[in-house]
Amino acid sequence: MTSIDTKRETNFAVTLTPCNFGKNTYIARVPRKTVTTDQLLDLVAAHNQGIDRYQVEHAMELLKKEILEQAELGFSVDIMEICKLYIAPIGGVRTLTPESEAVTGFEARFAVNDRLRKRLRGMTAAVTAVVDPAPQISQIANPVAKEGEADGVLKATFSARITGRKLKVGGEKGGIFFVPAIDNPDPDSGGKIPSGTEADWVRVPDDFITHNADTRLEFHLPRTLEPGRDYFIAVRTEERGGVKLRNPVTGISRIPVTVAE
């Protein structure tokens, strides 16, 4: 249950998700937090000393009853000048005799009052998080590594395990890739960076993937990898929750691993 503060303070904030249709553009979302009727009654009592909470609750029940009855009669109901409740057919009607057709199946809809709409447009909120839809790799390991073996080394003839978030791959363009590490062209930054030439990426065959889940991937290493070379690992998917994405999303490990014989 959402906690409320009777001092009318708020921690209202939004999350940002990168938009695929515009550079440096984000989609803002407000995390949904629901305040119950009981909590509203508690707030009314807290802000209006001496009021009978149960009388207010009884009045709300009477008001709710009338609102529902008027909506069922087909009226649009103005609810306390906050929004209007109205009903609309769920879908279209296919018939050869429209004048004698009985329309069934309706749903409730709401139209926000202009006064509330103007107040909301003037609100500001902090950013609580920037949500990255791409797969996030937190660890790469050789699941059969022995104690004392070097970290960051994968045996060419063994398998690998990746842990993280949003890792499950799917779709024709999805998969696990070994990205050759190249020298950073920026001398001040140093180190290695992933090759941007995707033609050089080595794809893990689908039948080499033995475990495909959001938090863990396990797979055999492709036989075409060059022993002794450093690779970043990229995870790409164009499906999320069974739904095809408009554009594939790719997550690349922050540090490379070395493939050993």
Q: What do these coordinates show?
A:
The structure is a single chain. By secondary structure, the protein is α+β, with helices and mostly antiparallel strands. It contains three helices and 17 strands. It has helices spanning 37-47, 53-72, 114-121, and strands spanning 13-18, 26-29, 77-79, 83-89, 106-112, 126-130, 136-141, 153-155, 159-165, 175-183, 192-194, 202-203, 209-212, 216-220, 230-240, 243-252, 257-260. The strands form four sheets. Strands 8, 10, 11, 12, 15, 16 and 17 form a seven-stranded mixed beta sheet that branches. A hairpin with a 3-residue loop joins strand 3 and strand 4 (83-89). The mean pLDDT is 86.
Provide the fold topology.
Layout: E1 13-18, E2 26-29, H1 37-47, H2 53-72, E3 77-79, E4 83-89, E5 106-112, H3 114-121, E6 126-130, E7 136-141, E8 153-155, E9 159-165, E10 175-183, E11 192-194, E12 202-203, E13 209-212, E14 216-220, E15 230-240, E16 243-252, E17 257-260
Parallel strand pairs: 1-6, 8-17
Antiparallel strand pairs: 1-2, 3-4, 4-5, 7-9, 9-14, 10-11, 10-12, 10-15, 13-14, 15-16, 15-17
